Amino acid sequence: MENLFLKVHETPFRSRYKYDLLKDETLNENLLADYLKKQLPQANNIRINKKAQSIVFEYTSTLTDKIEQCLSSIDKEKLLKESSSSTMLSCVNEEEPSLNGVTRASLALGLERVVKNDMAKATMTTAAALPLLKEGTQELLEEGLTSKVLEAAAVGISIYRKDYLAANSTNAMLELGEYIEETTVHKSDDLLKELAKPNVKEAWVERKVDGKVTEVLIDSDDIKVGDIVVVGMGNTIPIDGHIVEGNASVNQISMTGEAEPVMKVRGDRVISGTIVEDGRIKIWAENVGSDTATQKIKTYIENSLNEKSSVQLKATKLANKLVPVTLGLAGASYLY
């Protein structure tokens, strides 16, 4: 099926199209732009406005025919699958959570009671809180009053008032909270990376050829409900279903979190995305394509990430709006 598009404006060196595919919320416009640039290297610039569902092409010599041929022939399903993986991987942070901040703040807090010299306390506390003070100052200059500025101000004022216990305690709690958040996110990212891996492209399926049942290698997209799928050692199960023959040790960590492989025998249910570590099984395909557990989890996570981003953005904006009020009340309390 060809993709629908409409040319809405054209000049000798520029054209703009309304493109039906951009209505799909799961499509990553950056991925589409990269694809179009590869297919149309003659174009000087390609800009996509997803909200307006339009694509602008700029060129030195007319490309109308090639542009329209490219737009109509894009493999929608393939592009959406790549967008799905790209969307999730863009949310993944590759950095390992660091304990440096927690260690530095905790050390300063512990030494605060031991060190008696005020100058040494001031130097030690300032050094421990320096990253927070830098971040707060930078945000103040770039974004104005934010929650990070408020945190830095709380620590900075405590240092100025020589209340080193309060400064170190506040800094230690902030560093610990940030580390816990990073650790939680990092653990969930491991699952995202597993789920965002490309789907199994090919699979062995039983077919009748010249009256005999034989195993044929086909595209995973061509598997239908009721097919008998054969999965051997080291291969990923591409569908959900029940084992009709054989037994195998199946690694389900990416789907269930079980660290140890599980022995599966005839009659047991297996799910897509899991890996056969040992053995060979034949599976009656029950759920295929977008109906498999892997695809449903991907969709759920993508929706959750988008919803979470929206909620977090609103929460951050609300917190930032309350910062001037908080500082005002603190100032009034100090003066009166």
Would you write up a description of this structure?
The chain is of the alpha+beta class. The protein has 3 domains: 5-90, Alpha-Beta Plaits, CATH 3.30.70; 100-195, no CATH class; 202-291, Calcium-transporting ATPase, cytoplasmic transduction domain A, CATH 2.70.150.10. The protein has 9 helices and 11 strands. Helix 3 (76-90) packs parallel to helix 9 (293-335). The longest helix is centred in the last third of the chain and has 43 residues, at 293-335. The model has no long low-confidence stretch (mean pLDDT 82).
Largest sheet descriptor: 7 strands, antiparallel
Principal-axes geometry comes out as flat
The number of helical segments is 9
Percentage of residues in strands: 15-25%
What's the overall average pLDDT, rounded?
A: 82
Give Rg in angstroms. Answer: 29 Å
